[in-house]
Amino acid sequence: MRLRVRYSKYGKVRFASHRDMARVIERALRRVKLPVATTEGFTPRPKLHFGLALPTGLESDEEYFDIDLIEGATVDLQLLTTDLTAIMPVGVVIEHIDIVDKSLPSLQETVTRCTWRFEFDDIDTDKLALAVEKVLASESLVISRERKGKKVDGDLRPGIIALEVVGPTENGSGSIMDAVLATQPRAVRPNELLLVFDPPLHAARIRRTHQWLAEDAPLRESVGSR
Question: Which of 11, 21, 47, 196 matches a 20 to 30 Å C-alpha distance to 90?
Answer without folding.
Answer: 47
